[in-house]
Prior knowledge:
- By secondary structure, this protein is an alpha+beta fold.
- Helix 3 (51-71) crosses helix 5, helix 4 runs parallel beside helix 6 (199-210) and helix 5 packs antiparallel against helix 6.
- The chain has a nine-stranded antiparallel beta sheet with strand order 1-2-3-4-5-8-9-10-11.
- It has helices spanning 14-17, 22-25, 51-71, 90-102, 110-122, 199-210, 219-226; strands at 6-9, 31-37, 40-46, 129-133, 136-140, 145-148, 160-164, 171-176, 191-196, 232-239, 242-247, 251-253.
- The protein has one domain (3-253): T-fold, CATH 3.10.520.
Amino acid sequence: MKNQDIHYRxxxxxxxxxxxxxQKIKSHDLTSFQVEVKESDLMxxxxxxxxxxxxxxxxxxxxxxxxxxxxxxxxSITLKPYPADHSAHPMIKExxxxxxICRNKLMAAVxxxxxxxxxxSLLKETDEIIVENGGDLxxxxxxxxxxxxxxxxxxxxxxxxxxxxxRKKGVGLCTSxxxxxxxxxxxxxxxxxxxxxxxxxxxAAATAIGNIIQSKDNIEEGLEIAQTINGLxxxxxxxxxxxxxxxxxxxxxx
Length: 254
């Protein structure tokens, strides 16, 4: 890995990241900083600076993913569930399992999965951590946190917050959108936000459900699909001026 592929910032640089939503997810009682390796750009929040540990963890887990793709090129390009590989690293196994459950491509789970594995590794140093990767988060906090949903041009954007209780166990919070951001979606949802203890599953499920949302008439169908996916805690779907919720969701309006 070349040195120029690796960057670290011990502060939250909104202008560099060009991700305006990050201003909304900053927790003012925690220290925020960014870690970048190639395409991975993480915003990390913790009670203390963990720059060396964060960078090392991101490099470590990216290498696992890159090495597996080098040996198994179809892993990164297949649009279908991938065969189980009992010899693979647990992170790879979790991506494969999430893809199989949600019946979509493997890389739909990669951002959430990296967030989770980096976060869990940092929990050796602290009992509180929030890792965000392209809008996909893994949260383990000593208090209930509020997460604001950004939904592009929808009138509900930045108007709704979810209460995230991760005091006992870490929680993945992942969002897919067909109208916001560079990630590809076959749907047109403004936001599909999924909560699960597995960030890989939350990421894959958000993508799968987001793919079927073409209009607000599809919201009910999306909620029904969510109920068939084992391991989800809940979700929110926003399309235009309509919203649907399912599961153990606590929310409020801003």
